[in-house]
Write a structure and sequence with these properties.
- The structure is a single chain.
- By secondary structure, the chain is mainly beta.
- The chain has two domains: 181 residues, Immunoglobulin-like (Sandwich); 124 residues, Immunoglobulin-like, CATH 2.60.40.
- Helices cover 12% and strands 48% of the residues.
- The strands form five sheets. Strands 1-2-11-10-7-8 form a six-stranded antiparallel beta sheet. The protein has a four-stranded antiparallel beta sheet with strand order 15-12-19-18.
- The longest helix is centred in the first third of the chain and has 14 residues.
- The radius of gyration is 25 Å and the shape is flat.
- The protein starts with 5 loop residues before the first strand and ends with a strand.
- The N terminus is likely disordered.
């Protein structure tokens, strides 16, 4: 594993940071025990990365980077302070026929691994406001690691930026860029496919529960959301109907065969009306495992056809 010469503590990104070996030397100076030394090493691994290009942007306070490695997610956070660069550039907007100030930042993140060099691209935009400050958070989830053998993997992360206007007219000026590497312990992944066919509400009970919450039509937009770890796997809804039928499948990547999913049945409203949860349940993937649809009944729901198929190890 490459030596990690930059460690940021997320809650103190604006403070001067010590490298992990400086922390280690302090621990030795105070005669810290082996347990503390191991904790320091683990903390450094969970937050460490190694600069390849662009370290001078860090030194000039234009860019700050924080890394947090959890068992099932990898977080990379960026903070920009471009105040010292002066006025924003202006670009010509052909749509409106005028010059606009490029006071936004288009961000592109490219993450590669050293096992199969597969690229993951993440892009977003952040407003710099009048003080030249902005931020960008990137997150890699379990499905992003499905093509990698479990174990310690080195990733190369490349950050690219360009000034842009509110209407995404891009300039040719790139204020900051960076490239760094980090190691991440890719976990053993398991894969399960979820198949959904239809959901049908009990009209009488549902009308009592929802009341007259829809100004346009008394019938709900019956919807279904199947999620794992807060992320939707299956989602869809009808329009002005007490049932929704649309066969679809979604894959769940999980850390243990004993994983659980959340199933929410809702009235998927629009405009000023918010979604109304009708009922939800949390069940194990194994409880609906099979080769044919299982009717998962619950209050307000007369029929919900769903099943899962366990595919085994995913990496």
């Amino acid at each position: 594993m490459a030596m990690m010469n930059n460690v940021w503590e997320e809650d103190n990104m604006d403070e001067e940071q010590l490298t992990w070996w400086e922390i280690r030397d302090l621990a030795v100076a105070y005669e810290a025990g082996e347990e503390l030394e191991r904790d320091i090493g683990l903390w450094g691994y969970e937050h460490g990365y190694t600069w390849i290009e662009g370290e001078h942007f860090r030194d000039s306070s234009l860019l700050q980077i924080a890394v947090n490695k959890e068992e099932a997610k990898l977080f990379i956070k960026f903070k920009f302070d471009l105040t010292s660069l002066g006025e924003y550039p202006t670009v010509y907007d052909h749509t409106f026929g005028n010059n606009d100030e490029a006071d936004n930042l288009h961000i592109e993140l490219i993450v590669r691994n050293n096992q199969n060099t597969r690229k993951i691209k993440i892009s977003d935009e952040t407003s710099l406001y009048s003080d030249g400050k902005g931020s960008f958070d990137a997150q890699l989830d379990l499905e992003d690691f499905q093509d990698l053998a479990f174990g310690d993997v080195e990733f190369t992360v490349e950050l690219k930026t360009v000034y842009t206007t509110f209407f995404d007219v891009r300039s040719k000026k790139s204020p900051v860029s960076a490239k760094f590497s980090l190691n991440y312990e890719v976990p053993q992944l398991y894969k399960t496919t979820i198949a959904f066919k239809s959901v049908r509400l009990n009209e009488e009970l549902t009308r009592i529960k929802l009341g007259s919450n829809d100004f346009n039509n008394p019938d709900p937009e019956t919807g279904i959301r199947v999620s794992y770890d807060g992320k939707s796997v299956i989602f869809g809804h009808s329009q002005n109907s007490f049932s929704y039928t649309h066969a679809q499948k979604g894959d769940v990547y999980h850390l243990t065969p004993e994983a659980y999913i959340n199933i929410t049945v809702m009235d998927a409203d629009y405009g000023l009306n918010f979604n109304d949860d009708i009922n939800d349940t949390t069940i194990s993937l194994k409880s609906i495992e099979g080769t044919d649809y299982f009717n998962l009944k619950m209050k307000y729901v007369d029929e919900l056809l769903i099943y899962s198929q366990y595919k085994g190890k995913a990496n």
